[in-house]
Amino acid sequence: MKEVAAVFQKEWRAEVRSRHGLFTAGLFSVLAVVAMSFAGYGLRPSGSLAAGMLCVTLLFSAILALPRTFLIEDEQGTFDLLRLIGEPGPVFVGKTLYNIVQMLVTGALLGTVFLALSGVEVRSGPLLVAGLGLQCVALAAAVSLCGALVIGASNRWVLAGAVAMPLLLPQVFLGVGALRVALGEGMSAGGWQSVAGLAGFAVAALASGPLIASAVWREE
Amino acid sequence: MKRLANPYLFGAVVVATIVSFALPDADSFRVPSLARIIFWHLPCAFLTTGLVFLAAWFGLRYLGSRDTRWDIRGAAALELGALFGALTMVTGILFSKVQWGEWWQNDPRQTSFLMVLLILAAGLSLRAGLSDEKKAASAGAGYALFSLIPNFFLMFVFPRLPQVRQRSFHPSETIQTGGFDGAYWTGILVVFACLAWVTFIVYRLRVEAGELTVRAEFADGNREADRGSAAPDRMVRPVPVPPGGGD
Amino acid sequence: MLAVRDLGRKFGPRWVLRHIEFSLEPGEVLVVRGRNGAGKSTLLRLLAGLLSPSEGTVALPPGPLRTAVGYAALDLALYPGLTAREHLQFSATMRQIEDSGDVLLGQVGLANAADRPVGQFSSGMRARLKLALALQASPPVLLLDEPTASLDEEGRAIVDTLVDRQRDRGVVVLATNDPHDCRQATGVLQLE
Known about the structure:
The complex is a heterotrimer. Chain A is mainly alpha-helical.
C-alpha cells in the first residue's frame, strides 16, 4: 500500500510542478464545451443529445490526458528506473488511482461548465453524479491499461488513443444511458440500470488491469 | 495450400451452398428469397465470437508461459476473428439494404458489431505498432484478454437490453426465441460446419507459417552469428587480469 | 553469487550477444569491454532484469530483484521534476527499505544539492545520483555501465571508493572501455 501511495505522490508532485496532465485535460474540456455552445447557436439541447455531447467530450479528454502518466515514463526514459526499483502491480495501481482522481476532477469541471453553458436542466442530481463519476472511473481504468500496453511503441501517443477508443465505446453508451435520464429523458429505472452497468465495467477494469499490466511488464 | 484443395472440403462447400439455396424462403422477411444470406451471416458471427474468446484464451496461456507458440496461435485467432467479423459486417449490410432499404441505418446491433470489429482492428494495430516481438506478443495478449470485457458486453449483454430490443430492426428476437424453423437451423448448422472446417485449416496453416517464420529467423540469426557479422558464436568467458592493473 | 550460463539475446532476427558464460564470487570485479555495439550495455541490462534473455540463464542471489541488483547507466533517466532527496525517498519506499538518503547523498558528494530538482543537475551530478540509487539497497550485485563517463576527477575517486566497498559485500560488473575503470578489475570479459 505504501508503494501505491508513493507512486501516487510522485505523480501528484510531477503534476503540481509541471501542470501538464490536469491542466491540459481541464483546458481541453472547457474549450470543447465552449465550442459546442458556440456551435449550438444558443439552442438548448435535448437530454439525450446533451448526455451524448458530455460523454464524448469526457471520452476525448480521457484519451488526450490519461495515457500521459504511462507514456511520459517511456518518453523521458524513466520507465527503466521504475522497473528497477518497483513491482509492476503497485506502479500500475498508483498511476491508475492518480488517473482516476484526475478524471474525476476533469469530469466535475466539465459537467459544471457544460450545464452552465448549455442550460440543460438536471432532473436527477444523484443519477448525474453517479453516472458522471462512474463514467470517469471506468474511463480512467481502461485508458490506464491501454497506456501501459503501448509503452515501447514508436507511435505510442496515437496508438494509445486508437487502441483505447473502441474499448471505451460501450462505456460511453452506458454513460449516455445514465446521463440522458439524469438530464430529463427516459425512465429512471433505465438510468440506474446503466449506472449498474458502468459500475460493473469499472470494477472489471480495475480488477483485471493490474493483473494484465503486471503480466505484460514482467519482461521486455 | 494442398490442404485447402482437399476434395472433401470442396464437396462440403458445394453442399453448404446448395443447402443455402435449396431451403424454402423465409416468409417473415420483406424479400423472403434474399433472406437466405442469414445462412452465411450467422455462422460468420458465431465464428467471430468463438475466435475472440480463443484469442483471449491464447493470450492468457502466453502471459502465463511466455511460450511463442501461444502468441502465434493468439495472433492467428485474432486475424481470423477480424476476417470473419468483416464478413459478418458485409453480409449484415447486404441484408440491411435488401430487407430494410438502407445500407447503414444506425441499428444498435449494426453499431455494436462494428464496435467489436473496431476492437479487433485495434488489437491488430497494437501488434503492428510494437516492433519488439516479445513486447508485441505480451501487449497483444494483454489486449486480447482485456477486450473480453467490452466484447462480452457488446455480444451478449447489449443485444438483450430492453432499449436496444425496442429500437433495433435486427431479428435477434427471432433467433434467440427459436423463431426459425428446423430447416433454417439445419441450413445454418451445415454452413457453420463448413466454415468452421475452412477456418480450422486456415488457422492451422497460419500457425504453421508463424512457427516456420520463428524457426527461419532463428536459423538466420545463427548463420549471421557464424559469419561473425552480428556477434561471435563462441563461448565468452572472463580472463583474469594480471597483477598491476586491467590495461 | 552471480552465474551466467549460455546467455544470448537477439533483437528481431539479429543476435547481439550469444553464449556468454561466467560466474563471479564475492569480492570479484568483472570489467566488460568491447567496441561500440558489441553488446556491453545489453549484457548489463540482461543482468539487471531489464531485458529477458533469448536463451540461457542468469542466476542472481536470492531475494527480490529490486534489492539484489543495483544498476547505474548513462542512459538511465531520472525524473526532472523531483529532487535528489525525493528520488531516494521514492526509491526506498518502492524497494521497501529504510531511507538512508542523506548518508548516500553525502557519499556521492551531493549533500548540498539534495533539494534541487534533478532537471537542474549537470550530467556528472546525475551520474552521482544514479550511483546513490544503485547502492541504496546495499545490493550484492552492482552493475555499472560507463560509470565515470561524465564524472570529474573527484567523481571518479568516489566511484573507486564505492567499488572498493562493494567488494566487501558482493560483486561488481563494470561495462567500460576507460582504462581508469579497469584498475580494480579481477577479470575482463572482452566482447567482440
